[in-house]
Amino acid sequence: MTGPDPDVVDRGSLNCREFVEIVTDYIEDDLPRAARADFDHHLDVCVGCTNYLDQVRATIALSRTAVLRGTDGDALTQSAREALFEAFRRSRNA
After folding, report:
1. Per the structure, how many domains does the chain have?
2. Residue 4 forms part of a structural domain
3. How far is 58 from 76, CA to CA, in rounded Å?
């Protein structure tokens, strides 16, 4: 799986580095309309950043599950723990 390419600059008005910098604002729906349109366009043309966004969302979902179950590390199921570690591994290799 590929991740954002920090050297990509020809993906419209938003490059991969800029994409990564505002991904949290996108997820939280805090981007102005024009910036969101640029972000969406970048998603349409960049598979690496699409994968990155999916990984960030998966990490957030797993973290939310852990918080809902409590802060005790033993509260995580083995499959949830493995999924979280896999998401981190993928993001490091991206």
Report:
1. 1
2. no
3. 15
Q: Does 8 reside within a domain? A: no
pLDDT tens track for 24-65: 999 999 999 999 999 999 999 999 999 999 999 998 888 877
3-state secondary structure of 70: coil
Q: Is residue 11 part of a domain?
A: no
pLDDT band at 9 (very low <50, low <70, confident <90, very high): very low
Please check whether residue 9 lies inside any domain of the structure. Answer: no
Query: Any residues with CB less than 8 A from the CB of 31 and at least 6 apart, and which?
Result: 22, 25, 39
- Alpha-carbon distances, residue 50 vs 35, 64, 72, 81, 94 (angstroms): 16, 21, 32, 24, 11
